[in-house]
Amino acid sequence: MKVMLVALLSFMSGLASAAEPLSFETKYSASLYGYTLDITSNLKKLSNGNYQLYNHVDSYAGELVETSQLSWDETKKIATPLTYKKYCSALGKSSEEQVRFDWQKRTATSSVKNTSISVNGIGNIQDNLSYHLQMRQDFLAGKKSVNYTLTDGQKNSSIVFEIVKEEILDSALGKVKAVKVKRVNSGTKETYVWLAKDYQYLLVKFEQRKDGFLYTFTINKATLNGKPIPRF
Question: What is the four-CA torsion angle of 21, 46, 132, 18, rounded to 10 degrees?
């Protein structure tokens, strides 16, 4: 009986780790330099089978909009970025950026100065947004630390995260069991994120310290797989 139970649990665990990403939408509020920030993130599956990850930071002073279209390999559990777009406006000035990936040529091309960079022979390639999804899926699959190569079509850089501990976190949606994750190689910045362990590792809280200044935001609204989460 015990052997059968262990086998069943192992099988169910395998199903959970192999599951494709679930659609979601999360909202957060923050304050930065006296400005109130409203932050929205979401993931949706497109009609062609790919996914689109979206991030929007809105304030009186300006806004930041990022989108990443990516494919998901359910067997390898890998997100492959296809196109990354970024729009930023602040104090009357705006800028746009786009990165296109050509996986046959193994290159990433930036619209900034029309530069291209090779990603040949490099594993875990992500754009500046797609790694958010890859990290959540990797932790969902049981990993304790992750390492990705980010590219913006101009340069490649490494980003490393590791789980520090589990803790109960207070939020606008109630208490939530979260894993506290540290960015290991963030230079002079000290960066942590908290991910909801029982809710597909949704981002619950972000915290960053630099030069004595603390920037943080916490979740206040969430939908997972089309269903609202009134309380954790």
Answer: 20
